[in-house]
Request: fold
Amino acid sequence: MDEENFLLQECATAKFGPNATDIIFSDGEEEALVCPLQDCATEHCAESFDAYYCQDLVSSESYPEYKTFRRVGSQSFLSVPILIGARKFAGALHIASEQANGFNEIDNMLIKDIGYRIGGHLYSKRLKEEQAESHEASRKLLQSMIPGPVLEKIEEHWKNSSDDELSSCQSSSLNCSSDNTQDNDHSRLTSLPRRERRGSLNFDPCDYESTQRRLENMGILKRETMLLGKKHLTPTSSITSESGISESKPVFFAETQSNVSMIFCDIVGFSRIARTLEPIEVMQMLNDLYHIFDTLCEKHGVRKLETIGDTYIVSGGLLEEGNDNDSGKDAAKRCLEMAQDMVREAYNVYAPTEPRERLQIRVGIHVGSLSYGILGQNVPKFSVYGDAVNIAARMEQTAPVGKVHVSKAFHDLVNDHHMVWDEKRNTDVKNVGVMETWIMNCM
Reply:
């Protein structure tokens, strides 16, 4: 059924009480009806986007709506369209009177206004719903790139930073009221709605000294942020360097966490395999493997950080509450189980070469501290660095094929009498030196 060719008809009765302001509404006895949108007063409104007025229901042609109102003793009838955005017909408001020619010119205007207001309300509601859907879609997209807990911290920082900036601007402007230019800025700032105040001061980017002085007077330049150890940061203006590249914006979030386990994994012989295949075949092979790894991440409760070519990076304990209660041991055990499953499952994925060959991977793990934050302006990206990252990468690079290579720190954290390790070795780690490491055969 084409919904645009039908209407849902509902009825209610309104009666005036003793006072003119007392109006009593009651629902109609009949249930809502689905009626064809043709040969009716509603069709007239839909086509003309204008009101339809019948002064005498008794002697007029018999539209379906007339029968409903005649049954309750009505003699005149007014129908006004409900428009969304003044362009889309959403329905009609039918009002009847017990008297013939019961609506004068003012009544017509008021009822039309009611119809317009209903349409405006529906339009506003639809916009809010679309904005909410867009916001949710954007948030999901961001959460696919940036962990949820980090997004929450950033949003809280923005809120606090906005409040601090407004307070500082207003205080500084009041203390320096002798500066007429500044007074104008303060007046213009405080007259704006709160949500529009940030970024509303348009300074001339060519007059650097004047811009800097006014920003300092208004408390915007060299303000203290809520994060990054109370460091003084200078916000970016639109001033560009001699090369024409604009200055970067301050990094608004960075933290350090200890007892984080990191997994690095890559495919053995990937470059050789990729040279013999079409790009679509390589992508499909990686997609098949990473789909399995993504499922394993959910199974073991670890976080996928990113993929770089054939390298798959995972963390355990990062942004997890209570991770330090056991020095990250629970997260480390989950990472070891994840690594074991990665080796086993990768062996069941084939490269589409001639002849086909099983994929084999190397896995390296380390536990330690790292720092994380958001980098980039056009494409913001969650980034990590530190010993936990560097040494885990070295463990993977020096791992035997099809085995898990871990540092002594990780081994000592997770080891118990149930675990079987293939061997202990001394590994020369770049930029670190010789380290005691352990190897586990997962097959």
Observations:
- Residues 20-28, 181-208, 218-239 have pLDDT under 50 and may be disordered.
